[in-house]
Specification:
By secondary structure, the chain is α/β, with parallel strands linked by helices. It folds into two domains: 193 residues, 3 Solenoid (UDP N-Acetylglucosamine Acyltransferase, domain 1); 59 residues. Helix content is 41%, strand content 13%. Strand 14 and strand 15 form a beta hairpin. Helix 3 packs antiparallel against helix 4.
Length: 261
């Protein structure tokens, strides 16, 4: 038990630069208190002491503002940062080295008793502030859930989910771990924010603009080649000169858009 406590304290100090000492973590971090009390409640729950488990859980909620059902399963080195308003349901499973920020809900969408109603977070998942993960699916290892995202479908390992409903905007990629970094540190990203995590709709629009700009550039090359051969556009059989004029205008618009970007 004491080894688990030491692990929890070390994990918090590693992931939170505001933690200045182990004593500060033990006395002033509600996430640490909630995890420790949950272990007591969970042990009572699985051994048949359901009422006492719920009572300890309720006391932890009153003390920390973090509600963890005693039936939920928490792994090692789980860090609940700030924590106010966190709700973790009965059948939720949280893997080792996960980080959860304030206002997060790991909720269920089914009323069926005994079923897996709440999500499973695999190792190293980070859930940003205000995110809602709803359903009995799995969020893959080292995945990141952006702040205020509403996740209702599985997230692949290493992916990043943002928005409402959440969309995976960064596919899972295997990245080598630097020799001087632990896996937890190399994968950690506060609040689930990652570099270049652009909105997928914006990425799609920019891709279409780039494609259209390339096509109009090719049209310009064809027109220039025909001019060099002394062939007039309106003399080509089956070609509407007005269509080429429209394409030319579109090319100018796309070039202007590319210049503004």
């Amino acid at each position: 038990m004491f080894s688990r406590l030491r692990e929890d304290i070390a994990a918090i100090r590693e992931r939170d630069p505001a933690a200045r000492s182990a004593w500060e973590v033990v006395t002033c971090y509600p996430g640490f208190h909630a995890v420790v009390l949950h272990r007591i409640a969970h042990a009572s729950w699985v051994s048949g002491g359901r009422w006492f488990g719920r009572f300890v859980s309720q006391f932890a909620r009153f003390l920390t503002g973090i509600e963890i059902h005693p039936g939920a399963t928490l792994g090692r080195r789980v860090f609940i940062d700030h924590g106010m308003g966190v709700v973790i349901g009965e059948t939720a499973v949280i893997g080792d080295d996960c980080t959860i920020y304030q206002g997060v809900t790991l909720g269920g969408t089914s009323l069926e008793r005994g079923a897996k109603r709440h999500p499973t977070l695999e190792r190293g998942v980070i859930v940003g502030a205000g995110a809602k993960v709803l359903g009995g699916f799995t969020v893959g290892a080292d995945a990141k859930i952006g702040s205020n995202a509403v996740v209702v479908k599985p997230v692949p390992a290493g992916g990043t989910a943002v928005g409402n409903p959440a969309r995976v905007v960064m596919p899972a990629t295997a990245k080598p771990v630097e020799k001087d970094c632990t896996p937890e540190r190399s994968a950690f990203c506060a609040y689930g924010i990652t570099p270049n995590a652009d909105d997928p709709v914006s990425l799609a629009i920019h891709g279409l603009i780039d494609h259209a700009s390339t096509q109009t550039h090719r049209v310009d090359e064809i027109v220039a080649a025909l001019d060099k051969l002394g062939t007039r556009i309106d003399a080509i059989s089956g070609v509407d000169n007005a269509a080429f004029i429209d394409l030319k205008r579109l090319s100018d618009v796309m070039k202007g858009e590319a210049a503004r970007r």
